Amino acid sequence: MRLTFLGTGTSCGVPVIGCQCKVCRSTDPRDKRTRCSALVETETTRLLIDCGPDFRMQILPQPFRKIDGILVTHSHYDHMGGMDDIRPYCQFGEINVYADPQARLSMLEMLPYCFAEHRYPGVPAIGLHEIHPHELLRIGDLEIVPIQVMHGQLPILGYRIGPLAYITDMKTMDEGEMPYLEGTELLVVNALRFDKPHHSHQLVADAVAFARKVGARQTYLIHSCHDIGLHAEVNAKLPQDIQLAYDGQIVDF
């Protein structure tokens, strides 16, 4: 199984428009962070997690082959704003998109022309499916279990895919979700920055504590803003089994 981090940044991305901090001026490509998205692939199945406004540029370097499903974590634009750009992949057939009730409704409102009775030629062919926490999905040779986390006051979805758990935009998680993370080997979880608490996102210390609780063999931190610091300096501070991910990074597991 292969995980490719397409994007690892927050809703503003890095560099932030107009910012002159050392991170935004960095020439290290690992400090360039587009909006969060990832590919999970086996030899026969390809899943996209979230499809934000940077999707077109994120996917261009990747091999052009069928996307078997898109898993949406939640309804915010930085996680759904690139859905129109999936249209080239519709030459392989309708693309199934899986979302919770709120994200499903948001997509109907954002892309009404994709779901109209009489659609004009060329619009993305989307099969939109409502999903709920803990209900097993089977897509190709992958089994996926949605789990519920809290993005502030908003319930959103994380995904358990075999040995992988992918969670973004989490602030808290109910203890009742922990059994769905048992046996996680590769954990991906959000870490906004080191200090200045945020009302709906974890800080690095929160993410590290969560990783220790889950007990994953390896953890990668995502959804990080420019305040977190330079990629190389951040990873030097972190234990080897918990590292800051970067756009384009590939993990085989």
Task: Give the topology, please.
Blueprint: E1 2-7, E2 37-41, E3 46-49, H1 55-59, E4 69-71, H2 77-80, E5 95-99, H3 101-110, E6 126-130, E7 137-139, E8 142-151, E9 154-161, E10 164-166, E11 186-190, H4 204-214, E12 218-222, H5 231-237, E13 242-244, E14 250-252
Parallel strand pairs: 3-4, 4-5, 5-6, 10-11, 11-12, 12-13
Antiparallel strand pairs: 1-2, 1-14, 2-3, 7-8, 8-9, 9-10
Task: Outline the structure in words.
With 253 residues, the chain is of the alpha/beta class. 15% of the residues lie in helices and 27% in strands. The chain contains five helices and 14 strands. The strands form two sheets. Strands 6-5-4-3-2-1-14 form a seven-stranded mixed beta sheet. Strands 7-8-9-10-11-12-13 form a seven-stranded mixed beta sheet. A hairpin with a 2-residue loop joins β7 and β8 (142-151). It is globular and about 55 Å long. The termini are close together. The model has no long low-confidence stretch (mean pLDDT 97).
